[in-house]
Design a protein that fits this description.
alpha/beta, Rossmann fold, 6-stranded mixed beta sheet, globular
Length: about 210
């Protein structure tokens, strides 16, 4: 079979196709690479119309990475989707989903484990990079924590996916960002691949 095998060539051709087929004018100029990576992650140029990236998101996220702030993620799939070798030295990815305390909190409060796990972010929340790629309840719970007076993160990557709460949690983020730079996608679409691609775009020279 005749097909392209070189990884760098595949990336280059993929990104060239995306840029040729997509009007990127709806996102901030410095966020174009992020939009391209998100489209590459899902194979759908049409999602450009649903992406919402605040004007200050790229600068805020890059500053947080430079300051070696942690990346807090809702699920292990997001952790593994982020290319760790590209991260600045000292930047830690933290996932508290499998912490036994998250299970206990979930049972005690009758909430999802992903929502419970966000309560374990508090000590690392200030100035952190939040990446949510699975659970709408995690995004809702995070916003509730901030409303209750928890420290604000540097930015929020909000890409929860699904049919219950996904669109609503992201609509809440867009309509009331709490002064926090963010990147998200409207509606039901989302997922770990999209969410992690946002960070990969900012840490890659490809």
């Amino acid at each position: 079979m005749n097909y392209l095998k070189d990884p760098a060539a595949i990336y280059a051709k993929s990104f060239a196709i995306i840029r040729a087929e997509t009007d990127l004018s709806s996102v901030p100029k410095d966020a174009e690479d992020i939009a391209v990576r998100i489209i590459h992650a899902c194979g759908m140029p049409e999602v450009i119309s649903e992406l919402v990236i605040s004007a200050d998101f790229v600068v805020a996220t890059r500053n947080a990475l430079s300051n070696k702030r942690p990346i807090l993620v809702d699920v292990e799939m997001v952790r593994h989707g982020i290319i760790q070798r590209q991260l600045p030295s000292g930047v830690e990815i933290i996932c508290t989903l499998n912490d036994p305390r998250a299970r206990e909190i979930g049972i005690t409060q009758s909430i999802t484990r992903t929502a419970a796990a966000t309560q374990l972010w508090k000590e690392n929340l200030e100035g952190a990079i939040i990446v949510i790629g699975n659970a709408p309840t995690a995004l809702f719970a995070l916003l509730e924590l901030i409303d209750a007076g928890a420290p604000k993160p540097a930015c929020i990557v909000g890409f929860p996916v699904g049919f219950v709460g996904a669109a609503e949690s992201k609509a809440e983020l867009v309509s009331k960002s709490r002064g926090i730079p963010f990147a998200t996608i409207k509606g039901r679409k989302g997922g770990s691949a999209m969410a992690s691609s946002v960070i990969n775009a900012l840490t890659s020279d490809v």
